[in-house]
Design goal:
The protein is mainly α. The chain has 11 helices and 2 strands. A two-stranded antiparallel ribbon has the order 1-2. Helix 5 packs parallel to helix 7, helix 7 runs antiparallel to helix 9 and helix 9 runs antiparallel to helix 10.
Length: 308
């Protein structure tokens, strides 16, 4: 009883010296403290006033076999994969992530169209490699737009002939056309980057191939994005090309000085020559693809029909 009467005097000392735990109320929940050798202090010793209750600070328990773990599959590539299920997830990861990557590339293209100055600043600061730009940006954009255009060719077709009769393409025809389109587009970017690099040297601009490849891959993205319009029957192939090349010119206007960094006195000339070269290259490609979509290549007849 004397100890409980002197409780008000002894509490300050107990708070600092951690002594005389008997003065504490027994209503407090006891907290087990596990030492490194995993020996446990009896529950009779309650926690001191300065202790804080923490959640989930108990010893680890084995995970049951039937426990399900919700993990994003694309995060598996960051860890070492050893089990069979993890290896399957690794191979499925690109297919599962591809729609999201393609959507992100389209959003990036819209930013280049509507806010080109800021978008180019981010591209320059990122300093992406050629492989990254090709695999993560350019190729998904071309594949996504070609998939949409091919779907339209199969289900809606295109108007052909002078009378404008609709023709729906077969799966093989649509796949062949889209594969040719992607190949020609990639050739324009890869070969055009070397041509633009050579043109830059005539304007006393020393640029690397990576710089010019970056300029064309992002600068022509509006043109590649507008390929989606080829999926719709009433829209002429030349309409999608004209709108796309005009938007690309606007994007290149901001991209040439930021990526290639020419002399201010030569900047506009380099931009003008680059735009003309790309207009001719993409225009010739559009001429061939438009003839195919409009059925004019079929009118020429295969070479096998010639009597040699």
């Amino acid at each position: 009883m004397s100890q409980r009467v002197d409780r008000a005097v002894e509490l300050p000392g107990d708070f600092f010296l951690l002594l005389n735990p008997g003065v504490e109320s027994e209503d407090f929940a006891a907290h087990a403290f596990v030492l490194p050798d995993e020996r446990q202090i009896p529950h009779g010793h309650g926690e001191q006033p300065g202790d804080e209750q923490e959640e989930d600070d108990h010893a680890g328990q084995p995970i049951p076999d039937n426990t399900e773990v919700d993990v994003h599959r694309c995060d598996l590539i960051r860890f070492g994969l050893t089990s069979k299920s993890e290896m399957i997830a690794l191979f499925l990861c690109p297919a599962l992530c591809w729609p999201a990557i393609s959507l992100a590339r389209m959003i990036k293209t819209f930013l280049l169209i509507f806010n080109p100055a800021e978008a180019w600043d981010r591209i320059v600061r990122a300093r992406r490699s050629l492989i990254f730009i090709f695999v993560i940006y350019l190729l998904p954009l071309l594949l996504a737009t070609s998939l949409a255009a091919g779907y339209g060719l199969i289900h809606w077709g295109k108007l052909q002939g002078t009378m404008g009769f609709p023709k729906r393409f077969s799966l093989n025809e649509a796949m062949a056309f889209e594969a040719a389109y992607v190949t020609l587009s990639l050739l324009i970017v890869f070969i055009g980057a070397q041509v633009v690099k050579s043109l830059g040297e005539t304007f006393h601009s020393r640029n690397t191939y990576l710089q010019t490849f970056t300029l064309l891959a992002y600068g022509l993205s509006p043109l590649f994005l507008l390929h989606i319009l080829d999926a719709f029957r009433p829209i002429s192939p030349w309409v999608s090309w004209f709108i796309g090349i005009m938007l690309s010119w606007g994007v290149l206007y901001h991209g040439v000085p930021k990526v290639m960094e020419p002399d201010p006195s030569h900047g506009f000339g380099l931009y003008l020559v680059t735009s003309i070269v790309l207009c001719l290259a993409t225009g010739l490609t559009r001429l061939v693809t438009a003839w195919y979509l409009q059925g004019k290549l079929g009118e020429m007849g295969p070479i096998s029909h010639l009597n040699l």
